[in-house]
Design a protein that fits this description.
This protein is an alpha/beta fold. Helix content is about 35%, strand content about 15%. It has 17 helices and 13 strands. It has an 8-stranded mixed beta sheet with strand order 3-2-1-4-5-6-7-8, with helices on both faces. Strands 9-13-12-10-11 form a 5-stranded parallel beta sheet.
């Protein structure tokens, strides 16, 4: 009776696997559901991973280990210490380094046989079609709505499957969108589920709300699984479904997602026929520029005014533990306590509200305007920008 290795070596002679590939992928090659034909499909396939952070880390590592022939990596960020609790592609020694460069170095150590394309840039409406066009499958590991909708729209326009994951605190979501197989009608896209993005700053991201470190590992691994199933043509794909994961209960549930005939990008009469500029898509471009300028202040402007001795009341709407890490000496009222503590604030004073990145403070400014506070500004990009551009010695988190 032939051993597994003898069987694999006989197969490899026909399908042109090197000796190293026969050994490296042996556990795939002996599986009847994958076998040499499936491994050959993986070898010939190309996958683009947008975002090499929490979700992108496990997705990229497993896809590289599996022998995907070509992997593209898109990310414009650098590695920070705060990333390392969940972004396992990177290490302490990678702090300050481009995430794409760090990711490529790790993946080369995992599997030097894989071709790696590095895009040290942000995906935009100007470059998305050009970048996505070269790949068979797109794995969306981004961490913001603007990029998520941009990827979705580009995948519809290019007929590419979009393996989309997201995480927040203890909750994860996963779906395969824009899937068009043969003559079958295209599956629903992300806009069929969520027709339009929320206004900028309305929904907190992981930097604001946090995420349990292991959660992106679970969802990112499932993204890699769905991408591999698409490539080898096995199993049921999460098209027309949304998989929800509750980490607190260790519980999965599935929702049906149907293609909407009125969807603006994949519907019967689409109105989106080209990519929408990012500043328009999520409402980051103000409808009233004068009002927006009146309601905001940059860290540079605030620093200048404080140095001049201007009497500005600083309101910190973060949590107490955040205040302990770093602060600007502001008056602390966590955002969720504000409705009950309005009497502690003087409406006649000029006020600047800040949080970590300007999201909670933007909502606070809107709330204060609605309650009679007219001279209130939001610190754009929050204390995080202050630590980067005004006081680099300040602790960050």
């Amino acid at each position: 009776m032939k051993t597994d290795m003898e069987r694999i070596q006989g197969i490899g002679t026909t399908l042109h696997f090197s000796d190293e590939e026969l050994q490296r992928y042996s556990r795939h090659l002996v599986m009847p559901q994958v076998g040499p034909e499936g491994q050959e499909k993986l070898k010939r396939a190309s996958v683009l991973i947008v975002g090499v952070g929490g979700l992108g880390s496990p997705a990229a590592m497993y896809l590289a280990a599996a022998g995907i022939g070509r992997i593209g990596l898109v990310d414009s960020d650098v590695v920070e210490i705060t990333n390392l609790q969940r972004q396992i592609l990177h290490s302490t020694n990678s702090a300050g380094k481009s995430k794409v460069v760090s990711a490529r170095e790790t993946l080369e150590r995992i599997n030097p046989l894989v071709r790696l394309d590095a895009f040290e840039k942000r995906l935009t409406s100007e470059n998305a079609l050009e970048i996505l066009r070269e790949y068979d499958v797109v794995v969306d590991c981004s961490d913001n709505f603007t990029t998520r909708y941009l990827i979705n729209d580009a995948c519809v326009l290019l007929d590419k499957p979009d393996v989309c994951g997201s995480v927040f605190q203890f909750d994860g979501q996963l779906g395969v969108f824009c899937l068009k197989a043969g003559n079958v009608e295209r599956g629903p896209c992300y806009r069929c589920l969520y027709p339009s993005p929320p206004p900028a700053g309305l929904v907190p991201d992981c930097a604001e709300g946090g995420v349990l470190g292991v959660l992106p590992g679970i969802i990112g691994s499932l993204q890699a699984l769905e991408a591999m199933k698409l490539i080898i043509g096995k199993g049921e794909i999460l098209s027309g479904k949304l998989l929800l994961f509750d980490a607190l209960k260790t519980e999965f549930c599935e929702l049906k997602v149907r293609r909407r005939s009125e969807c603006p990008v994949c519907g019967d009469h689409p109105t989106i026929r080209e990519l929408i500029p990012e500043e328009v898509m999520c409402g980051t471009e103000p409808k009233d520029g004068a009002r927006r300028e009146k309601d905001e202040i940059t860290v540079e402007e605030l620093n200048t005014r404080l140095r001049r001795g201007n009497k500005i009341f600083l309101l910190d709407v973060r949590e107490p533990y955040e205040y302990e890490i770093c602060n600007l000496g502001g008056y602390l009222i966590p955002m969720n306590q504000l409705p009950d503590r309005l009497d502690e604030l003087d409406p006649s004073r000029e006020m600047v509200v800040y949080c970590k990145r300007g999201i909670r403070s933007a909502r606070t400014v809107k709330f204060l305007h609605e309650h009679g506070f007219s001279n209130v500004k939001n610190l754009v990009e929050g204390i995080d920008a202050w630590a980067q551009r005004v006081d680099p010695s300040m602790r960050r988190y």
